[in-house]
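Continuing from the previous page of notes. For each protein in this section, the sequence appears first, followed by its structure tokens. Read the first protein now.
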Amino acid sequence: MSETPEPMHQEPSAEVPIPIGEPLAWPLLDQNGTLLVRAGSIIASEEERRFLVEHFSFYTGAARPITSAHPSSGDARGEPITLAQMRLSIGSPIGMRSFFAATSPMRRSRVIGFSPDRSLFVTAPRVGKLPLVLSVGENVQAVAIGAHAVYSFSCTILATCDQPFHYFVLSEPGAVRSLRERKAARVHTRLAVRYTSAGSDGELQGLGLGRDLSVQGMSLLSPHPIGEIGSNVHVSFPISTAQLDTQFEAVAVVRNMKHSGAADGLVAYGLEFESVSGDQQFALRSFLFDCLSANSL
């Protein structure tokens, strides 16, 4: 059992669409999922583009702009989405339910491993304090948060185990479709967000409305200035799920700002998280999964 699924192999070639002189509409990742060039960066010349193509093998799902907001059963060329393209990782949250209980709520589980034949090892979902009862050969519906999208798929229970704890072995995901075709799953929220930033008149503090939250950032509406584009701001808001109760803390960069035009005079700031600890990322992903489960499943 390995820790990550093997990405699809892709030879370096000019087929990777890297525009010159304009912001990238998507991030460039290598075959191991390592970020090479951030979305929005500009490749200034043909020489730079050629250097990237010649020295890196790009992950197949990373170098393609996302153009549709509608669910899809494959990529832009109509090819099926694979387990490698989903880019699940150890600890990725998964919601599951039996095909025979299509109206019941999704039960929370987590990825604990992958096998060479692309089977999934997941913790047994719970109903209250007891594990969800599923039988070998039973088909299940599932939804999971990948690196750049939220996916729904179907699996078959290959094995149920109770040692050293309750877990399931699932077949390779089939009929995979993207519920959120964007580089970061974003959910509509209304959060009371405390912010602190440095201004020309000293430290600025206040309370704003947090909306459109993702693992990469959020929109923060404030009645007062919080900073200029490019400046840093510290944000904090509570996260409470069935599994954890914590205070989310992060340093973010102001990427854009826009006056709402409404009578309330609020200004919307687009924030990109820059400094987030591993524990905070886990808490944020858990919170987003709960929100997506409530809104989309």
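Done with the first. The second protein uses the same format. Note its length before scrolling.
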Amino acid sequence: MAFVSIRIITGDVARLVGFYEKATGIVAAWATEDFAELRTPGATLAVAGTRTVPLFAPGSARPADNRSVITELLVDDVDAVYRNLTGLVADFVTEPTTMPWGNRSLLVRDPDGNLVNFFAPVTAAAIEKFAR
């Protein structure tokens, strides 16, 4: 088995894709106006509109209703991401902080309220764990 992607259902695909493009520097690949992907070497972040939900199971997903999943993105410089997102992000949950397990972390909410953690390993043990 391989983890391939995570999909966020939203009421405004263009707005959410724009946020993730600005936050990551990755240009999305659009399949339709209801579906786009931001592809990284490790996995894909897919963004889909509410019109795609009935294709799987009507009512199975609701936009802007997540309070349990944190999307985590490994970055080179957490503080640079913070500077880049200042003025774009309305809710910095945690400003850049070095965590006890050795990662520098920035926790934000995307425009739909989903939690996103931008992190970079900074201790020797964390760097070894995430060696690319």
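What the second structure shows: The beta strands are 5-10, 29-32, 35-39, 44-49, 70-74, 91-98, 103-109, 115-121. The mean pLDDT is 95. We return to this in next week's lecture.
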